[in-house]
Structure formats: C-alpha cells, structure tokens
Amino acid sequence: MHEFGIMEAALETAAQKTRAAGATQIHRLKLRVGKLSGVVPEALQFAFDALKDKSLAAQAVLEIEEVPAVCWCADCAAEFETADLKYECPRCHQPSGDLRRGKQMELASLEIS
Amino acid sequence: MCQECGCSQPGPYQVGDRKIDAHTHTLPDGTVITHSHHDHGPSHAHGHEHHHHGHAHHILNLNTGILNANDRAAEQNRGAFKALNLLVLNVVSSPGAGKTTLLTKTLNELKGRLRCAVIVGDLATDNDAARLRTTGAPVVQIATGTLCHLEAGMVAEAVKQLDLRALDLLIIENVGNLVCPASFDLGEAVRVVLHSVTEGEDKPLKYPPMFHSADVVGVTKTDMATAADFDRELALKNIRQASPRAKIFEFSARTGDGIQAWCAYLVALKTAGR
After folding, report:
1. Are residues A21 and B64, on separate chains, in Cβ contact within 8 Å?
2. Contact: B64, A18; criterion CB under 8 Å
3. Does A62 touch chain B (CB under 8 A)?
4. Total structural domains within chain A
5. CB burial readout B140-173, b (16+ within 10 A) else e
6. pTM
7. A108: which of A32, A46, A57, B167 fits an S-S bond (Cβ 3.0–4.6 Å)?
8. In the predicted model, what is the mean pLDDT of chain B?
C-alpha cells in the first residue's frame, strides 16, 4: 500500500504549486502513471479519497492517465508496446530490456483557483 | 525562471535605480495579468481580479515526477557509493523466499575476499539482523514500522552507522515485498530479485515491474524443486521473458549449490569497479 505515501507526496507538491500560484483550491488533479510504475490506479484513488479532506484538494476530482509500457527493439530499430507486459517484439519476437516509457509517476497538471 | 509561480519569466531585476519585481502572464483567453512577486499569498490569484467571473479556474501544467525526492536521494547515494568504489546490491523478494539465508551463506563464502556489510529492512524485529550478525559482518537494521519498502533517505541514514571506506560490498536486504520496492531506487548498482521454487514458475509474470527492473534474478531453494513439482525450464523461460536484462543464478543455500558461482560473480563485479 505504498500508494498512500505516493499520494501524500503528490498532494504535498500540488499544494506547494497551488500556493505558489497564489491560489487556494484545487479542482482537478491529473496524474500520469506508467504501467510499470508499480502503482495501481484503484489504490491511488482510494488513497486520494482518504487523504484529500485534509488538503487543498478536498473538493477535487482525481484523474489518472495510464501510460503504456513501450520498449525499443534494437534489431528492428523500432518501438513496440508490450502486450501483457511480456517485452517481446511483435515483429522479430526477441525480448527487449530497453524500456523507453511506462515507469513514470508524474503530477501532470492541476486545475486551481 | 520564477521560483514562486514557476513561469519562465525572470525574477526581480533592476533598471537604473528602479527595482522591477513584476512580470506579466497572458491567460488562455488573452487577458494579460501583471503581478508583483511581493503580492504572493492566499489573497492573490492569477486572473482573479481580471477575469469576467470571480472564480476563474486556472490550469497549471506541471509534469513533475512524484517520487523526485526519493530519486534525488538515490542519486546522491549512488554518487557517494561510486566515489568510494563500493559495490551496492538491493536484494528484494517476497517474504520467505530465502533472502536472509542466502545472504548469510554469501557473507560466509566471501570472508577474506570482500569486506561486506548489510543493511536489512523489516517492519519489525531484528531477527534477520541477528542471523546475519552470526557471520561477523556489520549489520544495520532498519525497522520501517508500517512501511512496505525501504527508501533512499533511510539508506542514507543507515550508512552513517557503517565505515564505508572499510567496505567492498554493501548488501541492502529490502522488506519482503515484490510490489512496492520496485518503485523506490535506493542508489544501488545491482538490483537482485529472488524467487524460490516453492513460489511456482509464474512469479516473474505476476510481478512485471519488479522483475523488469532486475539486474540479477536468483532462483532459491533449488534443493526443494522436486518436492515443489517445480518446472525449471518453464520458470527460466518466464524469467527471461520478464527480465530480459537480468543475469540468472540458481542456488540452494542449504546444500551450497550455486553459491560459489554467485560469489565469483560478485567478486568479478567489484573488481570491474561497478
């Protein structure tokens, strides 16, 4: 359940940015979460619901954008999206350890006033 | 860049003897806002006074990493370890896969070859630390309380209790968990993911983030493979699929099988200066 700690960190950064922009309320909080980030969107939502009341985001909507895991196949010189997280190039069927996207955990944007 | 509101305008500057501490923003609807940085506070909101309706919502595009703080701490650790030419492993597995037993064997086998220390994380008790101390190596226990993983800052604190200059190899035994520790870089050079034959062949497919991040995957308790009906070929195929970068080891800490090859690998890594 490290989603709680992650959500706490996200809300803290969001509060700092909101105050720095001179605003007092967060209306929408958008996170971007890679398929290989190790966090589960449902658990993030659960953590958000439990933590938001004590934050500037008490009235906010949480939006989570999931980013697929994309690997680079050196033989084909092309990217491919991993199906079932198996890291196998659909063209040449070689496995690839070169992950290009899908591990990120980002605070994408805030809607504030 | 303005540190207060994050816009790409310069901070305060001076023209002649006049101090200028204001800049302008253009809102999406074309409204131009000028504000001074002295005004920042709860009463000041970009666009409030200037917009048609009183409570204009404002979009802040941030795109900042949520675990930036941990990642920065991990990079600091990594830099410090590199400067000391210290090889650091982060060992993860599910609870009961045999981390402590393997490490105890490893420490004994490496005696006289590498100077080792261990940092061990658990929610509670120092039972594992006590087992590891029987090898004579210095051991620091981190009791995480309720936290399901170690973080880079905890490691930075724990290494203060060790004389890093007198070490060749630092092994971090993470909390038994195949999910959360995947997200928390500790600054290690090598991430070792263990999985025991009693856990079945499809463990790597069930925990993709952890296995994909592995530099080494170790199959433990191989002496129990027959009893557990373990399909070795299938397991190795799954590991290669989930962990394409990883070097694979198979060991039995009980019989000692595979321990020498593993220790030779660690000595070679250390000699190569990783």
Report:
1. no
2. no
3. no
4. 1
5. bbbebeebbbbbbbbbbebbeebeeeebbbbbbb
6. 0.74
7. A32
8. 83
